[in-house]
Amino acid sequence: MQLRIRPGSRLPPVRYMGGAIFMGMLAVVAIMSIGLFAVGDIWSTTRQREKEQELLFIGHQFRSAIEAYSQNDPRGKQVQTYPMYLEDMLVDPRYPNAHRYLRKIYIDPMTGKNEWGLLKNSNGGIYGVYSLSEDVPIKSDNFDMADAGFSGAKQYSSWTFTYSPSVPDGTVRP
After folding, report:
1. What pLDDT band is residue 14 in, cutting at 50, 70 and 90?
2. What stretch of H or E contains 61?
3. Is the per-residue pLDDT at 16 higher than 80?
4. Which pTM was predicted?
5. Phi, psi at residue 16, to the nearest 5°?
6. β-pair type (160-162, 117-120)
7. What one-character-per-residue DSSP string does 125-155 give?
């Protein structure tokens, strides 16, 4: 359709907007960006807290498995042995039939890798594990009694999940 202009008629004046719509759109984009940044920050913090909870769960699984391995020596209760490898807790090599203390070797939720720091005694037995992550934890207090030493830790690698039985004289040995 073509617009016809009659001779002698006047068109309404065209107003120049001067980029007002463009500036309004820029303001909307800026506000949305700030909102998305805030949501991303909240999501990131929530995800890190979930990973911390997962690390605590996995650490307790390792601690329990090391304790069970140590207390179930086929030679009797007087001997405390520790696993030489993490895989020894999957299937205990000291028994002819399968004795399992751990379902699987868990992936470290903080690093995403199947690698753990190992705490070994003088015989080379594993008495504890820890994450290899050097990140700063969000959780810094209100740990369970078994994890009370984690309070104020500056890195996840300071969260060591150990089993150290007490000997009759009250001292603790790894």
Report:
1. low
2. helix 20-71
3. no
4. 0.75
5. -90, 120
6. unpaired
7. -EEEEE----PPPS--S---GGGGGGTT-SS
Q: Is residue 102 within 8 Å of 126, Cβ to Cβ?
A: no
Give the Cα separation of 46 and 52 in Å (integer): 10
* pLDDT of 162 strictly over 60: yes
How far apart are the C-alpha atoms of 113 and 109, rounded to whole Å?
A: 8
- What's the pLDDT tens digit per position in 86-113? 999 999 888 888 889 999 999 999 999 9
Q: Which amino acid is present at 85?
A: Y
Question: What is the rounded distance in angstroms from the CA atom of residue 53 to the CA atom of residue 109?
Answer: 9
- Cβ contact 115:131 at 8 Å: no
- 100 in Cβ contact with 92 (< 8 Å): yes
Q: Could you give the C-alpha distances from 114 to 65, 74, 105, 109, in angstroms and in order? A: 17, 29, 7, 9
How long a stretch of residues is the chain?
174
- Locus of tokens 């207390």: 71
State the Cα–Cα distance between residues 66 and 83, nearest whole angstrom.
7
C-alpha 89/C-alpha 101 separation (Å) is 5
